[in-house]
Amino acid sequence: MNKTCKHRNPLTHFGTTQAERMPAVLDPSNVELHGLTESDWLKFAYNYARLVNYYKDEDPAQPSGDWQHFFDPENRIDALLKGYGEGDTEPHMALFISFLKLLVYPQKQLNELPKRHLDFYYREVLQIRKKPLEPDRVHVLFELAKNASDEFLDTGTSLSAGKDSNGKPLIYDTTTPLVINQAKVASIKSVYTHQENGSEVLRHAPSTKTADGLEEELEDGESWSAFGNKSWPDSQLAFYIASDLLLLKEGTRTISLKFKLRDGITIAQSRLQAFLTGEKEWLEVSKIETVTETSNFIINLEADSEMDPITAYDEEAHTAGLPTSKPALKIVFMKAEDYGKLKNADISNLKLEVHVIGATSLELKNELGNIDPEKPFMPFGSRPKVGSRLSVNYSELEGKPVSDVEFEMRWLNTPANFSEHYSHYLEEIKKQKESYADNSSNFGSYMVATYYSNPILVQQEVQFLNAYILEDWSLQPGPPPDTLKNSFKAQFESPYGSKSKEFELFSDENRANDSGPAKKVANPKMSFILKESFYHDLYSKIYVNAVLTAPDKTEADLPNEPYTPLLDRLTMNYTAYENISFSPGGESSSVMYHQHPFGVKQATGTAALVPDYSFSELYVGLEGMKPGSNISLLFQVAEGTEDPLLSTFEEGDIDWWALSDNQWVEITKEDFARDQTHHFLRSGIAEVALPKVAGNQNTLLPKGLHWLRIRLKKKSEAVCRFINIHAQAAEALFHNKENSVNHLKNGLPSQSIDKLLHSRSGIKSVSQPYPGFGGAPEEEDSAYYRRVSERLRHKNRAVSIWDYEHLVLEQFPSLYRVKCLNHSHWNGTDLDEMSPGNVTLVLIPKLAEDNTNFRLEPRVSRNFMDEVEEFLNQHSSKHADLKAVNAVYEPVRFEFEVEFKNGLDFNYHKKRIIDDLKRMVAPWVFDEDAAIEFGGSFSEYEVVHYIENLSYVDYISNFKMFHKPADGNFSQKPIAKPSIPMAILVPVFDEQKINETPACG
What we know:
Blueprint: E1 16-17, H1 38-49, E2 53-55, E3 63-66, H2 77-83, H3 91-111, H4 113-125, E4 137-144, E5 150-153, E6 158-163, E7 169-174, E8 178-181, E9 184-196, E10 199-205, E11 237-242, E12 252-261, E13 272-277, E14 282-285, E15 287-292, E16 296-303, H5 315-318, E17 328-333, H6 339-343, E18 347-359, E19 363-366, E20 369-371, E21 389-393, E22 402-411, H7 418-421, H8 426-438, H9 440-450, H10 455-468, E23 489-493, E24 501-504, E25 511-519, E26 526-530, H11 536-549, E27 567-580, E28 591-596, E29 599-602, E30 616-623, E31 630-638, E32 654-660, E33 663-667, E34 672-675, E35 684-689, E36 706-712, E37 721-727, E38 729-735, E39 755-756, E40 763-767, H12 781-794, H13 801-811, E41 815-822, E42 825-826, E43 831-832, E44 838-845, H14 862-873, E45 881-886, E46 888-900, H15 906-921, E47 938-939, H16 940-948, E48 953-963, E49 971-972, E50 975-976, E51 983-988, E52 994-996
Parallel strand pairs: 44-45, 46-51, 46-52
Antiparallel strand pairs: 1-41, 2-3, 4-38, 4-40, 5-8, 6-7, 6-39, 7-38, 9-10, 9-30, 11-17, 11-28, 12-16, 12-18, 13-14, 13-17, 15-16, 18-27, 19-20, 19-21, 21-26, 22-25, 22-27, 23-24, 23-26, 28-29, 30-36, 31-35, 31-37, 32-33, 32-36, 34-35, 41-44, 42-43, 46-48, 47-50, 48-49
């Protein structure tokens, strides 16, 4: 036998709908024992009178005709009945008609015998009662009086709903105890991520209860998506660094962020923006560079000397919600599609480094007092000597972990050649040095006193004497070499290096620097100490000797005045860095904050470049709430607007949290007094206790409110669209006090309840914003007869196809059609129709008015299918392997060229022809009363004929029809028919394949 041959179930049927459950024969009113009307009786009497002999008194033994002429013929009966009672009817006919009218009463009693017999059998013999009245329920909202703090309502608190049609008061009683407080829903916000063009995008809604997530108002009763809408705006992707290192007043300021990532990342610098806190606003950084290494991602920023000072963060000026007073850096990633890789870029280490070039606002002081650095100044005074000190302070360094500091000097009026400038001083300098050398003990005391007991300076001075003064400059031919220039040195002392450093004052670099490991100091004072005087103490003696010994010498023979160091400009450069810790209580003073959709939060633990929002989140902001109190929230949803393919829920798919000090605290099952929302698939009340640790002073979301987070771990379409969220909600049940129950069929109209039956001073108002639900009057006769007759046939167990279908339709009235496939197994892609022991039940739900998105392919959720299977397993054989499934919708696609009648707009009528083809193939999309049937088929000819008969179509050409079976791909077919018994054909359209007929030529 061919192994590829598929066996087909020989039984062909189309399932059962709710309407088909009640055949006419089940209605006893259709079985009349006596069904003759007055007209029928008159016709009968007229015809029967012809058979009865008429005898005259004169000859009673001989018939004289019949009685027919006493009655009106059939063509006059209607007029006779119409004119009865107007006085023109003959007495005998009037009496006869009166009799017929009175005959209606015994006739009616006679015709009630089948019903009475059926009622007796069902109710008295079988003892099966009608389903009793089901009271409806309503959701009501309470508002406290202004001065009341709370109010307790016990179970059974009565509410007034006006009066029924008989004038009796309608009463509803609360079903659970409730403590009413002053809490209100003040804000509703949402966040969600979705895939867009292959990239993950983060979107948010500052005001979820709007059409666009921002401000576009909804129409009355219009629903909105609580967990995701593609029209919501993109969330800003950014982070902040708050650090004292960023307090950068002046100069060319370079900032470097070096991220060590667990996985590499590449972001072009053109996709970034950077801002720094200025005095009045954020200052944008124009020079940005990104560098990607193996596991490092580096962002380099440069603020030139023209940029305003970088100052401390001020909430009034910068409005970012940062909980800091430190200067801040903001990095913005401008492309929404970068979110996926940014949130997955885990940071193992972050190094912040700043480098400043050209700081000039230095605090200078020497032995003569404070110095103004804005003007040329003498750093060591007007008569500098060994040990003269210039003190430098720069408050910007206080508390910063500085690793390198450097000073650049620009001198004024320096001699072109120091050796030549001091040529008259050489002999005296030599003598002075020799004297120091001969009196080493005195020299040592001098040096110790001068250098503040610094042995390093003493040692360096001795080395200078040995190396320098033994050379006799006077014996050198020509102008002396400028070796004296290099002898003018100073000692640089700073708190950042391991030891003091010597440098030449007039070297070509004119720099003094110190470096070491990054170190924080409270007092960043630095000093320059002269190691060599400029010989002002020798000048008077040399000058006088020169004049006395040679009064007639020229000016050139006289000694030059000693050079007094004069600085035109002293600038400082420095480098500071710090590794930012993400562990709570870390040692680093720098902090990284993530920009969240509605606030900021410090990055701790395993941080990334942006916060991770893996699930859709709904935030409910409560005003006037007290931690530890209960809040009763009514979630009103548009039932049926969920995507049934997604609305299958397991434990943990929806969880609740409360915000405490920027941390989310989970709300467990034990914290709920009740939860009737059913995963937001129907309207209901959730009463939950707000954790005592919850706070309203957070930066993650706006301050002043207590925030609840409801997180959905499925797609946003898995739940219904929302209508509103209300606080202080309670459920009330209709209390029937011999009332008229006409309202139960559609529920109590909204706004019927507006007060307590017995008023309380603490309650300001009561409202009922939505109609009642869940009620039903006593079971009608037709439903009762149908239920009992089905019960007598299937005997409350599922054996035959008929049993399965009718049991499910009775138990689940939301279903439209059920089709049972015996010995068949569906694995999701293939139907095995010869699988003994397996039963497949195909379900089609009733079309929901609100859920127009899924009218073309109506489905039930997996949860619903589980309920059907659980129910049937209680009524079927243990040997039957039962599976409930959705119908399979096989798409049919059309391609053709069309010419519309002259003058018609092509684009508009192209959409119109698509709608009309939907009406042909799937009429239930537009007409909820249209049948949804299995097994329909149609040919190319039928479709072409249908299109060409549309009033606006001239002709079509190149028509093609493609069908995609459940286990295959699209292929062109002359006839489209379902490939399996559980399939239904539905139209799909590629608008690019429906075109205008090409012009001739």
